[in-house]
Design brief:
The protein has 302 residues and is α/β, with parallel strands linked by helices. The chain folds into 2 domains: 100 residues, Elongation Factor Tu (Ef-tu), domain 3, CATH 2.40.30; 175 residues, Rossmann fold (3-Layer(aba) Sandwich), CATH 3.40.50. The chain is 32% helix and 26% strand. It contains 7 helices and 12 strands. Helix 5 links the parallel strand 9 and strand 10. The longest helix has 22 residues. The chain is globular and about 55 Å long. The relative contact order is 0.12. It comes from Picathartes gymnocephalus. One of its GO terms (biological process) is monoatomic ion transmembrane transport. Its cofactor is FAD. It catalyses: NADPH + 2 O2 = 2 superoxide + NADP(+) + H(+).
C-alpha cells in the first residue's frame, strides 16, 4: 500500500509548497473602487504575475482571516498593467474585506493603510479558448458575468491594436440577471465598448442581450412605456433590456443561420441547470455533416 500512497502524497506536498511560496509573494493594492450596491473593485500588482482572459485567483486577507482563501474571477485584461477583481459584499468575509479597505469610511484612505493581501494563481478556465473561434456565444448569469469582463476588454484591446490578425470576428453576448443590482459596474464597460465600436464604424462586432429574469410583467410595464427612447432607462445602453428568459432554441437557430459551416464556441459561466440547457441546444443545433455548423460547448459553473 505504501508504494501507491507515497507518490501521490509527495506530489501533493510539492503542490502545497509551491502554493505557499506563491502566496508569500508581495501584492500591492494600487486602487480600490467602490461601485454601487456594495460591490468593490480591487486593482492590484504583483511581480511576475501573468494572466489570460477568464482566469481566476485565490485571495486571502490576513486582517480578516488568517486561514480563509476565496476564489475570484479576474475582471482585468492581460493587456492592462494591473490585475483586478470585483467583490460583491454578501457575507462575513467580504464584509470584513470591505471594512479593512476603509470602504465604510467617508474620508480618503491612504495607500499604506490598506490591508495586506495574499494571492495564489492565476488558474485556467474554459474561457481562455475564446480566441480559438471566429464566432462565439458568451452567456453569463448574475455574477457569472465577471470572466466576460476580462474577455470583452481583451478582445477590444486586440481589435484596436491589430484587427486584421484577430481570428474572432463576431461576439454574441447574453447576460441573465434576476435584478438590477449587478448592472452598474458592468453596464459602464458595455457603454464604453459600445461608444468605441461606433467611433470605428464597427457596431456589429458585438451583439448583446440583457435579460431581467426575476421581473414579472407588472414590474416591467413602467419601463416598457419608455421603450421608444434612444437609450434603455435601466442600463443607459442603446440595446433595450429584455424581460423573462431567452428562447435558447430560437437564438441557436438564428445564429446557426447567420454563420453556416462555422465552428461556434459557446461559453457559459452560470448554474448547472443553464449548463444542461445550453449543452443540449449545442448538440441538437450542430449538423452531422463535418462541413456544417457546429456549436462547441464550454462551461464554468459556480
Amino acid at each position: 500500500t505504501w508504494k501507491w500512497v507515497v507518490g501521490p502524497m509527495f506530489l501533493y506536498l510539492c503542490e502545497r509548497l509551491v502554493r505557499f511560496w506563491r502566496s508569500q509573494q508581495k501584492v500591492v493594492i494600487t486602487k480600490v473602487v467602490i461601485h454601487p450596491f456594495k460591490t468593490i473593485e480591487l486593482q492590484m500588482m504583483k511581480k511576475g504575475f501573468k494572466m489570460e482572459v477568464g482566469q481566476y485567483i485565490f485571495v486571502k486577507c490576513p486582517a480578516v482571516s488568517k486561514l480563509e482563501w476565496h476564489p475570484f474571477t479576474l475582471t482585468s485584461a492581460p493587456e492592462e498593467d494591473y490585475f483586478s477583481i470585483h467583490v460583491r459584499i454578501v457575507g462575513d468575509w467580504t464584509e470584513g474585506l470591505f471594512n479593512a479597505c476603509g470602504c465604510d469610511k467617508q474620508e480618503f484612505q491612504e495607500a499604506w493603510k490598506l490591508p495586506k493581501i495574499a494571492v495564489d494563481g492565476p488558474f485556467g478556465t474554459a474561457s481562455e479558448d475564446v480566441f480559438s473561434y471566429e464566432t462565439v456565444m458568451l452567456v453569463g448569469a448574475g455574477i457569472g458575468v465577471t470572466p466576460f469582463a476580462s474577455v470583452l476588454k481583451s478582445v477590444w484591446y486586440k481589435y484596436c491594436h491589430d484587427a486584421t490578425n484577430l481570428k474572432l470576428k463576431k461576439i454574441y453576448f447574453y447576460w441573465l440577471c434576476r435584478d438590477t443590482h449587478a448592472f452598474e459596474w458592468f453596464a459602464d464597460l458595455l457603454q464604453s465598448l459600445e461608444a468605441q465600436m461606433q467611433e470605428r464604424n464597427n457596431a456589429e462586432f458585438l451583439s448583446y442581450n440583457i435579460y431581467l429574469t426575476g421581473w414579472d410583467e407588472t414590474q416591467a410595464t413602467h419601463f416598457v412605456v419608455h421603450h421608444e427612447e434612444e437609450k434603455d432607462v435601466i442600463t443607459g445602453l442603446k440595446q433595450k433590456t429584455l424581460y423573462g428568459r431567452p428562447n435558447w432554441e430560437n437564438e441557436f437557430k438564428i445564429i446557426a443561420g447567420k454563420h453556416p459551416g462555422s465552428r461556434i464556441g459557446v461559453f457559459l459561466c452560470g448554474p448547472e441547470g443553464l449548463a444542461d440547457t445550453l449543452s443540449k441546444q449545442s448538440i441538437s443545433n450542430s449538423e452531422a455533416d463535418p462541413r456544417g455548423v457546429h456549436f462547441i460547448f464550454n462551461k464554468e459553473n459556480f
